[in-house]
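B., you asked whether I could sanity-check this one before it goes into the benchmark set. Here's the sequence:
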Amino acid sequence: MLRGPVQRVHDLAGHAPAPDRPYHAAMSPRLAHHSHSRRLSVGDHLRHWRQLRHLSQQDLALDAELSTRHLSCVETGKASPSRELVLRLCEQLAVPLRERNAWLVAAGYAPMYRELGLDDPAMQSARRAIQHILDSHGPWPAVAFDRHWNMVLHNRMVAPFLEGIEAALLHKPLNLLRISLHPGGLAPRIANLNQWREHLFARLQQQIRNTGDESLAELLAELQAYPGQPADQATHLDGEHPGVLMPFLVHSPAGLLHLISTTTVFGSPTDITLQELALETFFPGDEATAQTLRRLAQDSGARS
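And here's what the prediction gave me:
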């Protein structure tokens, strides 16, 4: 997808190794406000996540198999929970691993889940496995991205999609949402841009509800300010299955490419980095697109 003079992107796009941040938790503005005035207690975390999940104390106590009175005492600081209870409440509230560490520390226990960047020596087996999955998806494009939608790994079929993107958008870390929706990115080339925007917004809103991550809410507000398509120019594709499959129609010098996007996450990770990692894989939506991508892969292989 080229526009004007282009510079090919062959390097492994991603960001620098993330420092260990075992105590950092994504917080809503309300929880963040309290953290400025005093250290957060485990009761603060409990109240925040219970309300985020729209559960009463009675409902959560029933799910976690403890008395409402005991849960109330933990939430108000009148009782100190055991480590096992902290983890049980986190499980019932589907608290992400990053925030579970914050709960444990607030309750006086050591953090349980590690956070290592993919460049850390201890993560090389995982990194190789992820890269193998992405490479094996060829000749179709595939990327891996972190919780803030920053690309950390990709296969070689992603590079053609980055050609012609404004240089400022290619500074690391490369944010996939900005690249997709910014006027200097892929947005002018996406035939079903409005449909694609709504799909990404829905995913991001769900992620914000699940994690309470304020930085994602700020990113969403930024993205929503980017222009969409005029209604009379918008294309809407059939075949959308929310949460499973999404059609993606994009213009390229090789022709109009009809792709289908799907996302994969890791099932039961014990590492924060892996839990927050997602794989976005694209498949051809028709035979013409499949042939074009095979040809692009052959051309790329011949140049490499």
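One thing to flag: Residues 1-25, 33-37 have pLDDT under 50 and may be disordered. Otherwise nothing jumped out at me.
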